[in-house]
Structures
1.
Amino acid sequence: MNDNTTTMADGAGAAWMLARREWVRFFRQRNRVTAAILQPLLFWLLFGTGLKGAFSGSGELDFMQFFLPGTLGLIVLFTAIFATISVIEDRREGFMQSVLVAPVGRLPVLVGKVLGGAAIAWVQAAVFLALVYVISTVSFSSSVVPILILLAVIAVAMCSLGMIVAWPMESTQGFHAIMMLGLMPMWLLSGSFFPIPVLDAGASWGQWVLGGIMRANPLSYSMVELRRLMYPQIDFAAVGFAPSSSVCWIVSIAMAVVATLIAWYLMRGSRKVDVIV
């Protein structure tokens, strides 16, 4: 009993130190801090201003309001990419091999990496959200609490997906290529940038295909719930795809859990990737 308690404490300590290391590394890279905040802000301002007149949107929202939840998702996505790429860098520098031979096992490594990256992503999204409240783009209300919780769930899911890609990858170039090929379309097809097509008798076959793909994307449910929490006065079910809040939360949490379990499965699998340099 005592040995098990000691092992769990050691594992928790190792996970905490790895998560803290991600924070130290993040704040020592000032360009990364600046880019992580300013890039999504620029996207929001440029796309929101440029497409504001051409957008016939979702309910009463203009494009800047519609794109706001997608911008928060983009902040989390970019941070997940930069946070999980450190797995490849750590392996090249020999740090990861040193961690993996420690007696605490591999689970603390996964927990530390995912929670460290997710915490960075969550704080950046929270800072951007505070800015949105300050300039009154969204009215401040008690819904800020579930918004922050949902952002934490999305951050864990994105960092776990990043670990799935980064763990067997040999080069940072390959990692970026796969992430841009996988996660960016996942974000674009989540209703972040344009509404999910309504599938009725008047829909074309292309809208049926696109609408089906977007409905199968678990991130779509997170974006629907995020938008509903930001604009509770709008009935999104009357203007398009809007499953109930309970369905959105279940799918979002399931996405984070399944992605983390797959990442854990990969880390416990073949030891060949441990020696990739």
2.
Amino acid sequence: MELHELDVRLRIAELEYLLRPVRVAITRDHGTVTIDGVHVELQKGIEVELPYWLSRAIEEEELGKLSETPMSLEDIARIHFTTLSTRTPADLEQLPQYFYQEAKEYIKLLDERVRRELNPALLEEKQKAQQYLLEIADKRLLIILQSLRSPTNIAELYSKLSPEEQTILQLLQKALERWRELVLPRPG
């Protein structure tokens, strides 16, 4: 796997996040939208299932509200605590689905609010969220690197990794195999 393949796989993970279906409660009449040839009536008071990217646009236009609860600083702080408490790959907990995408979007939305509202509390919340996310990623990457020394640890660890983390693990495994082929003498 080359870096280009890494970019493609991470982009695919991002597209899966944007295309996932979510429930939206429609708060204003808007008429009909057509998605992949399917007509969806946006009528006040109903709840519809739409791709996430469209649901965000509907929410931004104040036509509806997402049914799912957005990520918060408390969510990231809880994962930060459990991740930094991890000692071995066996102790590592699986992240919630779309964790990195949701955390990235949460920080982006905070950044937009900081620019609009000039609120120091929002700036502090954004900085904490960024720091927690960085420390979570660093700790999990350290565990991935430590696991590369033991194939049994990798098998156990793989199912606990996010798609983004699985991608970097595969890249590192292939790079190490190639390095061994080129640098170490062949047995025999």
